[in-house]
Structures are given as C-alpha cells and as structure tokens.
Amino acid sequence: MSFWDTITGSDLTREWKAFEARAAALPADYQEAWTQIKGNLFAYGDFTGRNLMPILDAALGLLEEASTEGQSVREVLGDDIPGFCAALAGGEGARTFRDRWRQQLNRNVARKLGRLGG
Questions:
Q1: If we measure between CA atoms, which residue out of 58, 55, 39, 42 comes closest to residue 97?
Q2: For a FRET experiment, which of 7, 61, 68, 88 has its CA 20 to 30 Å from that of 34?
Q3: Is 95 left (phi over 0), alpha (psi -120 to 50) or beta?
Q4: How many C-alpha atoms does 106 have within 13 Å on its Cβ side?
Q5: DSSP summary character for residue 2
Q6: Closest CA to 65 of 77, 80, 53
C-alpha cells in the first residue's frame, strides 16, 4: 500500500469493491445477512473504517464457507446478528465510535474546566 493510497483511501475502495463482488456471488439469504453485518459493524469502526476491513473479510469468508457447506444463515450466525457483530468487534460491551467520542469530549471539557477553575 502506497502513501497515496493511504491518504486518498483508494486502497479501501478497491478492497470494498472486492468484498461486494464476493458477496454478490452468495445466495440471497447470505447477501441479506452480509448487509446486516455491514450495518451493525460500522458502529465499531474508526474514522476511516480501516480497522473493520479484516473483520469484514473474516465475516464474509465465514459466510462463503457456510454457503458452500450448505449451512443456513441461522445455523452460522444465530438469531442475533447485532450480538454476533459485537462479538466480532471485540465482545459484548465493545466500545463504539460514539463511546470514544463521548469519552474524548468529557476529557476535553474536564481539562477546560480545570484550567478555568484553577
């Protein structure tokens, strides 16, 4: 990956297109599960989403493998896709970008109040 790719995000675009091409080859019920997985994992991404790429690759690989083995989506993911995604992203209670932003805001406010009050 070149510096230019990193700055522009073109490496992510290529990788994302490859994911979508792989997902298009899946049966319809797996494609729907892929859409739900993407939607649920975005909350765990950083600003660029770069940290999610290995997780998305592994999830898509799991769907591909299960599809070739003839398993149903429910057998693979269970009934709780948001819970499955939370587990992929680091377990139940994993911090989302909202949690990180809230913590950063609280730190900044506390720092400012400390300067004003001291």
A1: 42
A2: 7
A3: beta
A4: 6
A5: -
A6: 77
Residue 110 in tokens: 């506390």
In angstroms, what CA-CA distances link 13 with 32, 48, 76, 96? 21, 11, 28, 23
pLDDT in tens, 74-106: 988 888 898 888 888 875 555 555 666 677 777
Tell which residue, 36, 38, 43, has the closest CA to residue 80.
Answer: 36
Domains of the chain listed by start with CATH number: 8-117 (1.10.1900.10)
Q: What is the pTM of this model?
A: 0.70
Q: Which tokens is 42 given? A: 């975005």
